[in-house]
Write a structure and sequence with these properties.
CATH architecture of the largest domain: 2-Layer Sandwich
Number of helices: 9
Largest sheet: 7 strands, mixed
Order of helices and strands: HHEHEEHHEEHEEHHEHE
Helix content: 25-40%
Oligomer: single chain
CATH class of the largest domain: Alpha Beta
Strand content: 25-35%
Distance between the termini: 39 Å
């Protein structure tokens, strides 16, 4: 659900005509060490990132929430970073672009709305020569019916048969209170199992269908 929504939001941003013309980097948050992250932001700017989302469920309806993070260079002070200077775009331009691309758009399984936003007020951004803005998105509810996600799951490749063929037997040892403890459990799991000082209260041993 969330991965699919993330992908369609990124694709929409990448294909919007104004964003393609004005924004250098579009994608998910970069996966780099923390100490290099601000440098990465500076190199990417102006950039729009989709931050991994979350969802809530009520009455079998799921509502998703995402954040779009925008980053610009801040070489001429906070005012220029917010408003732009006629050459470089500012955070306010990134908000406008995100609204134009995403607000009221049916993308994936739902319609998305921009619900808010704010400038990121952090001295570490100033020191790194960048400014950032966060824009929040909310989806219309998606029904989690009996066949939700069937097409998405159906397209996943099956495990290779060689990986399944090895799993032919299921065995479980059951230890009721007072428990025998981890050392005893390790002996029970040995090949062959060792039951000299203790043994399971019960055991399951199932030969799976098709096993030879």
């Amino acid at each position: 659900m969330l991965a699919h929504a993330e992908n369609v939001l990124i694709e929409r941003l990448k294909n919007h005509r104004d964003i393609k013309r004005l924004v250098r980097t579009i994608g998910t948050l970069p996966k780099v060490p923390t100490e290099k992250l601000l440098q990465h932001y500076y190199a990417d700017a102006p950039a729009l990132y989709i931050v991994p989302g979350r969802f809530t469920v009520k009455d079998s309806l799921a509502t998703m929430y995402f954040t779009v993070a925008g980053v610009v260079r801040n070489v001429a002070g906070q005012e220029q970073a917010r408003k732009g200077d006629g050459i470089d775009i500012g955070c306010d331009h990134l908000v406008t672009l995100a609204v134009r691309a995403l607000h009221g758009q049916f993308l994936g399984d739902c319609t998305w709305s921009v619900t808010g936003g704010e400038m990121a007020d952090d001295e570490v951004f100033d020191a790194a020569g960048i400014a950032a803005v966060e824009i929040t998105l909310e989806s219309t509810p998606v029904e989690l019916d009996y066949n939700y996600g069937e097409a998405q799951i159906a397209n996943l490749p099956p495990l290779p048969e060689s990986e399944l063929a090895d799993f032919t037997r299921f065995h479980a040892d059951i230890d009721l209170p007072p428990h025998a403890g981890a050392p005893a459990h390790a002996k029970w799991l040995a090949e062959p199992p060792v039951y000299t000082n203790s043994q399971p209260d019960a055991a399951l041993d199932i030969q799976l269908p098709g096993a030879s």
